[in-house]
């Protein structure tokens, strides 16, 4: 019981919006957003992928243009303005929650993982606000097997989630929440 009280006191003393690792989280998240947005803007406007694509890079890898109006794997497709704004609002709320988690984190691994997820969420959120859909363009396929089309923001999110999972298994249950 005493250990739980000490843990609760420590959590209560942690900052809500800006912690020891927040500068690094902010910098990494901004780098992720810049790389993601730069790649999308260049493919859509610089290369004009809609007109000039698809482009086969390897027998198993193409660059294609897909407008994803849903979430991961194209789930929950939203073709209305209401759906678009609900997903955008959900992205903002989740990103704020992840930011608070990162501000309270004492683990560098957790901070980096959360920065990746935040950067990916913000990158895809910008697309949703600017275009009404997320720009996806990386397409892996092998024979008749076809992977979903994704973007760099999705890569950041998956890498961040993998880091959080690794941390949770490395240090035991609930370590990622500490």
- Residues in helix, %: 55-70%
How widely separated are the two ends? 17 Å
| N to C succession of SSEs | HHHEEHHEEH
E-strand count: 4
- Indicate the structural class: alpha+beta
Low-confidence stretches: none
Indicate the mean pLDDT.
88
Protein described:
This protein is an alpha+beta fold. The chain has one domain (21-177). It has six helices and four strands, in the order H-H-H-E-E-H-H-E-E-H. It has helices at 2-13, 22-46, 49-52, 81-104, 108-131, 152-170; strands at residues 55-58, 61-68, 134-142, 145-150. Helix 4 (81-104) packs antiparallel against helix 5 (108-131) and helix 5 (108-131) packs antiparallel against helix 6. The chain is globular.
What would the keywords be for this entry?
single chain, 178 residues, alpha+beta, four-stranded antiparallel β-sheet, 6 helices, 61% helix, 15% strand, globular
What's the gist of this structure?
The protein has 178 residues and is an alpha+beta fold.
Chart the SSEs and their pairings.
Elements: H1 2-13, H2 22-46, H3 49-52, E1 55-58, E2 61-68, H4 81-104, H5 108-131, E3 134-142, E4 145-150, H6 152-170
Antiparallel strand pairs: 1-2, 2-3, 3-4
Helix pairs in contact: 2-5, 4-5, 5-6
